[in-house]
């Protein structure tokens, strides 16, 4: 039924094509090289986290692992679950980074800072053993956080829509 306006005319028809509410993501081909590499590194790191968590859960009851780490079975299981959760989040974030999602950039920065703190803990906890193995990941997470925070090309890629 058509509504009539007091001057006797009909209102203009509504726009037949409503705007698409789905978000648009960037094509990975338009991403800076650093973003492409970073998304691959984050996804690879997530897979490694999930593998480590699985191995820790399977071996948490062994006396060898408990002796080497100085942690109880419950502490090893809790640590494995935490690593697994971070791995799942990192995997989703890696996919988001590939898609050019701004939230993925923010979460990646936060995860990098959390991991730097965790690596600091590991370096202190294993001070008399292989603490130096945490240096390479610490450098990687520092570079990741720096790149996403301060590189103009990366910032523009994630903020411009």
Feature tags:
161 residues; 6 helices
Please characterize this protein's 3D structure.
The chain is mainly α and 161 residues long. The chain has one domain (31-159). It has helices spanning 33-59, 63-69, 73-99, 102-125, 135-150, 152-159. The longest helix has 27 residues, at 33-59. It starts with 32 loop residues before the first helix and ends with a helix. The model has no long low-confidence stretch (mean pLDDT 79).
Nutshell version of this structure?
The protein is mostly helical and about 160 residues long. The chain contains 6 helices and no strands.
Count of DSSP-assigned helices: 6
Q: Give the termini distance in whole angstroms.
A: 40 Å
> Please, what is the oligomeric state?
single chain
- The global form is elongated
Layout of helices and strands, plus pairs?
Elements: H1 33-59, H2 63-69, H3 73-99, H4 102-125, H5 135-150, H6 152-159
């Amino acid at each position: 039924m058509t509504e009539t306006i007091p001057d006797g005319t009909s209102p203009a028809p509504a726009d037949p094509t409503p705007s698409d509410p789905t978000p648009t993501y960037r094509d990975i081909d338009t991403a800076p090289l650093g973003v492409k590499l970073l998304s691959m590194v984050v996804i690879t790191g997530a897979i490694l986290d999930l593998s480590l968590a699985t191995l820790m859960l399977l071996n948490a009851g062994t006396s060898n692992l408990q002796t080497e780490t100085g942690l109880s079975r419950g502490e090893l299981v809790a640590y494995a679950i935490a690593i697994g959760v971070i791995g799942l989040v990192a995997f989703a974030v890696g996919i988001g980074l590939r898609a050019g999602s701004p939230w993925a950039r923010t979460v990646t920065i936060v995860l990098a800072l959390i991991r730097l703190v965790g690596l600091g803990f590991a370096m202190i906890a294993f001070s008399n053993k292989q603490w130096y193995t945490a240096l390479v990941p610490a450098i990687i997470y520092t570079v990741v956080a720096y790149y996403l925070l301060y590189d103009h090309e990366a910032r523009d890629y994630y903020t411009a829509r």
